[in-house]
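#lab-general

N.A. 3:47 PM
ok so I finally got the sequence cleaned up, no stray characters, all 668 residues accounted for. can someone with queue access submit it? mine expired

B.Y. 3:52 PM
send it over

N.A. 3:53 PM
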Amino acid sequence: MEPIGIKDFLYYKYLSNVKYAPDGKRAAFIVSNCNEEENSYESRLWLYDGAFRQLTDLGKESRYIWEDANAILFPAVRSKDEKKRAEKKEQFTSYYRLNLSGGEALHAFTLPFAATWIKKLPNGAFAVLGEIDANAPDYYCMKREDREKVEKGYADDADYEAFDELPYWSNGEGIVNKKRTALFYVTFDDASQKLTVQRVTEPFFTVDAIETIGDSVWFLGDSYTARRDLTHPKLYVMDGCTGKIRFLREYPGYYVERIKAVGETLVMTATEGKDIGLNENVDFYTVDRETGELTMLYENTESLWNSVGSDVRHGGGESMIGANDRLYYITTRFESSHLYALDLAGKNVPVATEIGSIDAVTIHPENDTALFIALYEGSLQELYAKDMKTGELKKLSHFNDDALKDKYVAKCEQVSVESEGYRIDGWVLKPKDYDPEKKYPAVFDIHGGPKTVYGTVFYHEMQLWAGMGYFVFFCNPKGSDGRGDAFADIMGHYGETDYQNLMDFCDEVLRRYPAIDPMRVCETGGSYGGFMTNWIIGHTDRFCACASQRSISNWLSFNGLSDIGYYFVGDQNRADFYTDHAKLWEHSPLKYAKNVKTPTLFIHSDEDYRCPLDQGLQMYAALVDRGIPARICLFHGENHELSRSGKPLHRIRRLTEITNWFEKYAKE
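B.Y. 4:20 PM
back already:
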C-alpha cells in the first residue's frame, strides 16, 4: 500500500450544505475540490433523488436555496457585465434560477448589495441579509452618480484605515469597522421585472440570528457605535407581508446562539454564562411570540455543535433544524458528533450516534429519512441516510472511494490515562510497515479551541506523518468539548491541569508503545494548540522539535489585537485587563521563553485576526534572541483557517514546512 502524500488532499472531494427540497422528495448539496493550477477551490451543485446528478459546472456555486420544489436559486457572477462590476468591487449579488425540469440556469434578479442569506416568503417576497457600511447605509438605493461618489471615497482611502470601534477586524472577514449585517425586504415581479428593496434595520444594527415562521421573520441582533457587547441581544419580528418590524424584547446578560422554528414555536438557544463564561453550553428556551419572554424548555450541559477536528472539510451546512415537532441538532459527545432530537415537551433523544463526525444535516417533515454529510469509518466525507424509524444507516455516495484506494490509512488505537482526577482519552496511529523491533520517531498533535475535540475521523496531516514512518498520537485534555461544562472549564487555569493532562498522556503512550524513541518525539498544535505548544517549550525540553501554529503567546497584547480579545481574554483568564496584569502575564507563554531549549517552528498568517501575527513573532523573537533554533513561516493573504481552508498551495507549503522541521530534528 502507498503512503498518504502531502498533495493527496488536492484530490479529495468535500461535501457541504445538503438541503431537502420543499416537498422532501430530493435534496441538493455542494461538492468542492481543489484546483492546484489556479490555487483555489471549485464548488458545484449536485442533486440526489435516489441517484446523483451534477447540476452546475462553473465551479463557483457554493451557496443556494430551494425557491420551490422544482427550482433552485444561487448567486453567481456569469455575464460580462457582472464580471466587470465584480472587478470594480461594486456591491451587488446576482441570483440565477435553475429549473430542475431542464435547461440552463437563467438570470433571476440582481440585488444592489452583497447578500449573505436569502429566504423566500409565502407571499413571494424575500427576506435577505446583506452587508452594509454604516457610514453609507443607503448605498443600495442611491442613484448611479451618488454611488460613484461613495466608491471614489473608498478608492481615495484605499491606502488608509481609520478605526473607531471594537472589533475593528474579524477573522475571515477583514476590516469590519462600521460594517453591519442588515435585513432587507425584497420584492420582485417577474412579469414587469420590477425590483423593490427596503432596508428594515437601522444603520448601526447588525443581525446575528434569523428564522422564519410562515410570513413572519424573527431576528436577533444589536446596535452599537463604539464597542460591541455580546450580552445585550434584542429580538424583533418582521411582517413578511409588509416589511414592517416590531421590537419584542432585550435579553441583558445572555449570550444567544440561535433561534429556530419548530412548527409554530420559536426556540432560542442561550446562556447567561454564569458557570464557565463564553464556553458554557447553551440551554433551550421557547419564546413567547407576543412578548419575547423565555421559558426554559431543556437545561442543557452538552455541546450544540460539531467540534470534531479534521482538515478534510470545505464548506458548512445546517446543524440545527426544526421538523416533526422536534428540534434536530448536532451535538459533540466525547470524540464524535451525533444527531439528537428535542421535542416541545423537553424530551431529548438520540437519532444518530455512530462513531465519527456529522458535518451537516437536512430533515423534512414529510420524509422519515435524515440526510447528512459525515466522516465515518476513518474515511473521507460522503452523504449518508438515516432511517429515523428503523435506525438503519446507509452510505449513499461514493465520491471519495478512489481517493484512499490502495493507500495506507492508520487505524486509531485508543489510549486512556488517569490524570489530575480525570480520565483523558486519546488515540495512537502506528507508522506504515510498523515493526515492533524497530525504534520510531513520533508526533504529538494538540487540538485548538480549547473547546473542541480530536476523534477517530480521518485527518490528512496525521495520516501523512504515519505514512512517513512516525507514530502519531493525540488526546482531549481538560478544556475540551464533548464532556459537559465542568470538563470544558479551564477559566483562569490555562496551562495548568490541561498541561499536566497532556504530559501524562504522552507518558502513557510512551509506556504502552516502547517502539517510540522518547528522544525523537515532536509536538505541534494550532490556535489553543499553538498556545499550548508555546507553553510546553517554556516548561519542558522533552520534545526534540516543536511547531507552533496560529498561536497565543501574550494575553496582554492579545487583548487589543485579536478580534475576540477584548472580551475573551478577561473571560477565559478570570482577570481584569486593566488591573490583573500579573495574572495575565502568569498565564502567558512568553513569560517562560527564557526557559526554552527546544527548536521551534512558528506558522502564522498575516490576516489571522483571531490569533494575530504578533503572537507568533513575539515568541519567535524571544527564541532567536536567546540563540534557540527557530524559524517562522508567514503566509500572506491567509487567516486563522490556513490549515483547513487556506489556498491549496499554501496548505502544501505549510505542511511541508512542518514536516521538514520534524525530519530535520527527529530523523537526522
